[in-house]
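Q: Here's a chain of 335 amino acids. Please give me its 3D structure as tokens.
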Amino acid sequence: MRRKYIGRPPTPLSIDLHLSLDKLPIFDNFVEFGLNMGVTPFTAPVVLPNGLIVPRKCQFSIGENGFAPLSYMTWNTAIISLVVKVWNWRGYEDEARALFATTGEQNWDDERRVRANAFIAGMKQDGVWDSLRIAYLFANRFSSIGRTNMKAPGTYTAALGGDTVPAFSINRGFKGDGVSGHLDLGGTLASVPGVTPDNMSVFVWSLTTGADTGREFGTIGSTLSSLQISNGTIFRVRANSSTQFDTPNTVGQGLFGFSRNGNAVNIYRNGELLATQTEAPTAFGSGNMSILRSMNAFSARQIAAVMIGTSVTPEQAAGMYRQVGDYLRAVGAVS
């Protein structure tokens, strides 16, 4: 049996199986030696009461009498109802709960809770969440919430830096001045769990059109790990090496990033693979990670979101673009 969704709780919910009579003995055997021995829980999309479709832990179970109830039979079909237990069907993702608690429950209305939760659940459903170590949705209601690492609140909280700190706009994020304003992420790339010079990804969503000579991601001490969306003609990446990978690009808006897996570096724009470069990594850029800055190259772009983690596949990059884009459209940052 295959379904797009497990169903809509309340829990437990039941699923009717339509079995031909010749398959009934096989199913009885499964009930006796499968369900009665305990079935391994699984994860499946579940429609929550608030309308969100999110992954939830599920498990088939049997009735109190020790076997699956036979609802009724037709001349050639047995209709059997199985119970499916669903964990946490009423609430938000655990990571969303942690985010609300860390940033202050009073700062979240129901609409924004749903949006943040939908983003986390969507990233899980598209297989991206586990690859992330740092996730910022700068396009938020409050600067402090935007600068909170949604993946692990309380770690890598972005701090405002520069003689003129980046300007924050509600639901749009932070804009640099191209001179000194930047966000200091409070740690080095080497400190990020699971991220190594040959296993890393960085994605930045810009709301600014046109060219910029600065860099939108980097480290404070060097340019070995950096990203420049467009200087007017190219998208430039340094993926933990001194070599610059340049990809033709005149567009300033959208989600730009790279993913390194071993010697292969994939370059992405808006979820699409633009190019693949090959070179062995050397080392991370030195100093703390920064947004709107790489060493002394400062950007004046407006940045709405940043995702940093281990390497991602093309399918995961597409999923990231879809989920971040859905969130930004929901808050009105993009159309």
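Q: Can you summarize the key feature?
A: The radius of gyration is 24 Å.
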